[in-house]
C-alpha cells in the first residue's frame, strides 16, 4: 500500500522570527528554512512502515514555491521513494493544502496519509483534520504510536492527562506528535541518491483546486515583553512582596 506524507517548508525552528514593521506578518526574508519538525517525524514513520514491509511506496508531497524542492529532497534522502511538488506562489492556508492533498489522494489512492500535527509557522493544526473530513476518512491526531495490522491502524494519541488508544480502518489520516519516533539523519550517500529519485511538479490549477485564501490576517504582533525581574533580600521580603502583589489574597 502507498503512503503519502505531507512536508511543509517553514522557517527553521532555531530562527527567532521578527514581525514586519507594518504588522502584516513575519519577516522570513533570508531566514533559514527547514522541513517542519513534525513532518520529519511523519516521514520517519512512513519510512519505518516501509521498512517493516507494511507500506510499499512513500510519496512525499510539499505545497509552495520552487525551493520546497529542497524539503522534498530531504524527505527522499531519509527514505521516501518519490516526491510531488504542488508549485504555487500563492499563500496556502490549511483548507487549500487539504484540498490539494485530497486531489493527490484521489490520484494516488494511498491507504494512509501522514502529516505533522501542526506547522510551526501558522500553528494551525488543521490540515490533517480537514483532509480526513474532505475524504470521509477516519483520522487519528497527535499520534505517539502507530501500529498497522492488515486494514486496521491502532494509534496511541497524546491527550490532556494521558494517552488514548484508538483503532480505525484504513484508508486514514494520522498526524504525528513529538514522541512518535526519533527521526534519522540523512547520510551523505543517501543525499546523493535522493537527487536521482523522481520529483514531479504539478500546479493547483492542473489539479483543479481553488486555493484562494478564506482567512484574512488582520494583524501580527510580538508577544508582550517580559518585565525585568527583581532581587529580594530574604524569604520574609519575598513573602511580603508576594502577599502585596496584585491578585494575591
Ligand atoms: P497546519 O494545519 O498548517 O498546522 O499543518 C499541519 C500539517 O499539514 C503540517 O505539519 C504538514 O504535514 C501539512 N501541511 C500543511 N501545509 C502544508 C504545505 N504547504 N505543504 C505540505 N504540507 C503541508
Give the topology.
Elements: E1 2-6, E2 9-11, E3 18-19, E4 26-27, E5 33-35, H1 37-51, E6 57-64, H2 68-77, E7 82-87, H3 94-108, E8 112-116, H4 127-135, E9 139-149, E10 152-159, E11 162-169, E12 172-176, H5 188-194, E13 199-202, H6 235-244
Parallel strand pairs: 1-6, 1-8, 6-7, 7-13, 8-12, 9-12
Antiparallel strand pairs: 2-5, 3-4, 9-10, 10-11
Adenosine monophosphate is lined by residues 6-8, 36, 38-39, 42, 62-64, 92, 94, 97, 115-116, 118-119, 122, 124-128.
Describe this structure in words.
This protein has 249 residues and is α/β, with parallel strands linked by helices. The protein has a single domain (2-221), classed as HUPs (Rossmann fold, 3-Layer(aba) Sandwich), CATH 3.40.50. Helices cover 27% and strands 28% of the residues. It has six helices and 13 strands. It has helices at 37-51, 68-77, 94-108, 127-135, 188-194, 235-244; strands at residues 2-6, 9-11, 18-19, 26-27, 33-35, 57-64, 82-87, 112-116, 139-149, 152-159, 162-169, 172-176, 199-202. It has a nine-stranded mixed sheet, with helices on both faces. Helix 2 (68-77) packs across helix 5 and helix 3 (94-108) crosses helix 4. The longest helix is centred in the first third of the chain and has 15 residues, at 37-51. The radius of gyration is 21 Å and the shape is globular. The chain starts with a strand and ends in a 5-residue tail after the last helix. 37% of the residues are buried.
Amino acid at each position: 500500500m502507498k503512503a503519502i506524507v505531507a512536508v511543509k517548508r517553514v522557517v527553521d525552528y532555531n530562527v527567532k522570527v521578527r514581525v514586519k514593521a507594518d504588522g502584516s506578518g513575519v519577516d522570513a526574508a533570508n531566514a533559514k528554512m527547514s522541513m517542519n519538525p513534525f513532518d520529519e517525524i511523519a516521514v520517519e514513520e512512513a519510512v519505518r512502515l516501509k521498512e517493516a514491509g507494511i507500506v510499499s511506496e512513500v510519496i512525499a508531497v510539499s505545497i509552495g514555491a520552487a525551493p520546497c524542492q529542497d524539503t522534498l529532497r530531504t524527505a527522499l534522502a531519509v527514505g521516501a521513494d518519490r516526491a510531488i511538488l504542488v508549485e504555487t506562489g500563492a499563500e496556502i492556508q490549511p483548507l487549500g493544502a487539504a484540498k490539494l492533498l485530497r486531489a493527490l489522494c484521489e490520484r494516488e489512492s494511498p491507504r494512509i496519509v501522514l502529516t505533522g500535527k501542526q506547522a510551526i509557522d501558522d500553528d494551525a493544526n488543521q490540515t490533517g483534520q480537514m483532509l480526513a473530513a474532505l475524504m470521509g476518512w477516519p483520522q487519528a491526531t497527535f499520534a505517539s504510536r502507530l501500529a498497522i495490522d492488515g486494514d486496521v491502524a491502532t494509534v496511541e494519541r497524546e491527550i490532556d492527562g494521558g494517552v488514548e488508544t484508538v483503532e480505525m480502518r484504513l484508508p486514514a489520516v494520522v498526524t504525528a506528535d513529538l514522541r512518535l519516533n526519533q527521526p534519522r539523519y540523512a547520510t551523505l550517500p543517501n543525499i546523493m541518491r535522493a537527487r536521482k529519485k523522481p520529483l514531479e511538479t504539478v500546479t493547483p490549477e492542473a489539479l483543479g483546486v481553488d486555493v484562494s485564501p478564506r482567512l484574512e490576517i488582520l494583524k501580527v504582533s510580538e508577544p508582550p515583553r517580559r518585565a525585568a525581574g527583581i532581587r529580594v533580600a530574604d524569604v520574609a521580603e519575598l513573602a511580603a512582596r508576594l502577599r502585596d502583589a496584585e491578585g494575591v489574597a
